[in-house]
Amino acid sequence: MRIFYRALLLLLIALGLLLxxxxxxxxxPRLPDYVPVEQVRYQDQWSAADRQTYYFxxxxxxxxxxxxxxxxxxxxxxxxxxxxxPEYLARFGFLVDPKQVPTAxxxxxxxxxxxxxxxxxxxxxxxxxxxxxxxxGELHFxxxxxxxxxxxxxxxLPSSVPTLRGGSFGQALVASLAATYYNPWKFERFxxxxxxxxxxxxxxxxxxxxxxxxxxxxxxxxxxTHRGLYPTQEGxxxxxxxxxxxNASFGDAxxxxxIASPMRLWxxxxxxxxxxxxxxxxxxxxxxxxxxxxxxxxxxxxxxIFSTAPANPCRARPVTRPACACATCT
Length: 330
Prior knowledge:
Helices cover about 40% and strands about 10% of the residues. By secondary structure, the protein is mainly alpha-helical.
């Protein structure tokens, strides 16, 4: 029996060490070092003001209910270093200018495409990742950077599924969220940073709201994993944008409420996508330069929304439109 217990103890120790190694690599994604450039050179097609508008105007995304001030107050799992520090986020491939400073449009001094918005029925500022995050590129050569507005980004943005390969912004963000919630000392620093003078009155509600956001990240990660939604390995410049936008729109954003009300599907844009729209739940965004959604969305809905005709395999079209001429229909 003594030999059995010793063997069992050694097995438990080995499993514990293996678990520790796995957890270490999950919360410490393997990232390239940050090497700041000497200068970022911009092309002449936009003014500086226009460029800032493109970079930091909210476009309606809502990152699993994550508040803007929560994001800027997060720490790395095993240190007190700020998660949203430009030099750390740049390691994921997000674009920063070494000379950038906080501005009215970018008070958190975040990379290109990290904006904030308020819903019409709330004063909460949510983190809003815009089109600019994925559609702004940069070329580096001998310490110089050429910014290409509208170019292809090379970041590792989406996946929050934990892997030993690491390197994903989503995975690192969830690790910091979990460490903040479950480490009482870290959460106390976080709460005091976020709440300030409201700490005593709002500490409890903050913890509940923070846990709700963390649960949404974990739920989506679990769904992505056990359903095998993204079989292609993603990486820098390799994001399954079409698949992720479709799953966010027709999976994550659909509920009993939206199914029960077809017009809600017409007015609601996905919280997981970005585009020239209003925001989630059909609410108009103050300061949204694109458009505000119609108070009567059915007034501008295409006729086929109300059609009971059989589905057209080629494209959605009004019933009154002539038959299409594509090979599938003829």
